[in-house]
Amino acid sequence: MARKKQLSKEKRVAIITLRNEGQSVQKIGKTLKVSPSAVAKTIKRYKETGSHEDHPRKGRPRVTSAAEDKFIRVTSLRNCRLTAAQGYQVNATQSSSSRHISRTTVKRSLHGKIAARKPLLRTSNKQKRLVWAKEHKEWTLDQWKSVLWSDESKFEIFGSNHHVFVRRRKGERVDSTCLVPTVKHGGGGVMVWGCFAGDTVGDLFKIEGILNQHGYHSILQRHAIPSGWRLVGPSFIFQQDNDPKHTSRLCKGYLTKKESDGVLRQMTW
Length: 269
Hints:
Elements: H1 9-20, H2 25-32, H3 36-49, H4 66-78, H5 84-94, H6 103-108, E1 113-114, E2 116-119, H7 123-136, H8 141-145, E3 147-156, E4 165-166, E5 179-182, E6 189-197, E7 200-207, H9 213-231, E8 236-239, H10 249-260, E9 264-266
Parallel strand pairs: 2-5, 3-8, 8-9
Antiparallel strand pairs: 1-4, 3-6, 6-7
């Protein structure tokens, strides 16, 4: 169990001073931002001992000082993937203290977090995504509902639950130094194509074997466009990513022809 934080000697003196001036326990608590129970205990202890000093605390005293704890945390944040063992080695090398600081003590001073997983993106892709976001930031809800969102997804039958721990500050969850990059890779699983618009889903198609441009062209004809017309209506906005089979001459030409016929509008992605 963690130790309870004690009131400072200055606050204990202030409590007794205000009490001697005739203030109530509740008023002292509000003035000093201390709970009424802590105020009452401080007054009771002063009556019994006549002293403002700390009682001797049970258990083993702390090995590290507040400054050493801060040094351990700062060292860890400079390299968020630093393990407790590595932090112990750094502290032993750089600390001016002659006392032995164990690996467990270093670990207790740190707070590990599981690294978030995000797709590995090149700088150019990050810039393109930012441009896209700025172009669409003023869109209304009705405009977003007119988009048919589509993609293929592979559901792995076997996967890894391996966690990577990092130590980070507040607001650094998606910082590149605190991420575990992920990429789509092989493995046993089921591949499907699906779509949705607004709060309604369209067709879900199970893909057999390897999906090429001809298979995707068939999906556009039999599932994408019928789903768009059913969920949104004529001139719906069609979204797809820049997968090579999506941007093949066959599929691109087909979508461009449908766009000129007023069937759909293609979203730049």
